[in-house]
Amino acid sequence: MHASDASESAPVDRRGGDRRRVAVGVPFERRTGDRRMASRMAPPGQAADLRGTAVVIDEWPLVRAGVAQVLQEQGIRLVGEAAAAAEGLHLARTERASILIVGTPGDCSLIEVIRSVRQGPRGPRVIALLTRTPSSELRELLTLETDALLLRSVGQSELGAAVGRVLAGERVVTGPLLSLLAGAPSPTPAVDADGGGGLTSKERLVLARLAQGSSNKEIASALHVSAATVKTHLSHIYAKLDASGRHDALARAMELGLLT
């Protein structure tokens, strides 16, 4: 093969630069429109390893690029991206995406996007990337069964972990947003022994400490019980709230108003 032939057939990275240096959530330049992501198909021989497909909606190209890299590292094929919600939702429907990641659309609010998704038939799992959002809107997002609530400035490792948990069926709410939702819940037992969600007063104490970000060891020390007892309480909490883990339990607790 001649050198000229090699140069003509070599793939070109139209975005340029090293994507590993892109930080999610840092605005760089503003563009409009959407693009089908045929160029991001998995390499030959890797299709069997794909964990799903995704569409990303955000008005900033750099945010979309950062999210795209995380999805690729998680084995998820990006089938479309859009600056506007209307185009992104169309892509999600036509491409039958399994995950929709929404940041700041250029034509409407994030809540409007998720409402639209939930009004139709069974849609994709939804991950919301939030900026400054009132607690009332956070609660509505939980009511709309948003699968993950993250900050728009989320790091790549945290976003990757959240995507993995969402694919596993968990609900994810990042720590800072949990604090805002919970309003620094006071570890005061409920009046009745079998409070909301069927939780006992002791279980609600554990749940409150969990919302404050305490570890099992810290909860045990604060409540003067053993770590094994804390694990037992958590097991009961997960079962009663039909939760798969800590993040899912806290999201369910917020929906039920157990941390307000």
What report would you give on this structure?
This protein has 260 residues and is α/β, with parallel strands linked by helices. It has two domains: 19-180, Response regulator (Rossmann fold); 183-256, Winged helix-like DNA-binding domain superfamily/Winged helix DNA-binding domain (Arc Repressor Mutant, subunit A). It has eleven helices and seven strands. The chain has helices at 3-9, 61-73, 85-94, 110-119, 135-143, 156-167, 175-182, 201-211, 216-223, 227-240, 246-256; strands at 34-36, 52-57, 76-82, 99-102, 125-130, 148-151, 172-173. It has a seven-stranded mixed sheet, sandwiched between helices. The longest helix is centred in the last third of the chain and has 14 residues, at 227-240. It is elongated. The termini are far apart.
Keywords, separated by commas or semicolons:
single chain, 260 residues, alpha/beta, Rossmann fold, Arc Repressor Mutant, subunit A, seven-stranded mixed beta sheet, 11 helices, 43% helix, elongated
**Count of DSSP-assigned helices:** 11
Reported by name, the CATH topology of the largest domain is Rossmann fold
- Largest sheet properties: 7 strands, mixed
Q: In terms of structural class, how would the helical and strand content be classed? A: alpha/beta
Count of spatially separate domains: 2
Q: Could you tell me the number of beta strands?
A: 7
Q: Which CATH class of the largest domain? A: Alpha Beta
Query: What Rg, in angstroms, do the CA atoms define?
Result: 21 Å
**N-to-C order of helices and strands:** HEEHEHEHEHEHEHHHHH
How much helical structure, as a percent, in the residues? 40-55%
Describe the global form: elongated
CATH architecture tag of the largest domain:
3-Layer(aba) Sandwich
How is the largest sheet built, in terms of strand order? Answer: 1-3-2-4-5-6-7
- Beta content comes to 5-15%
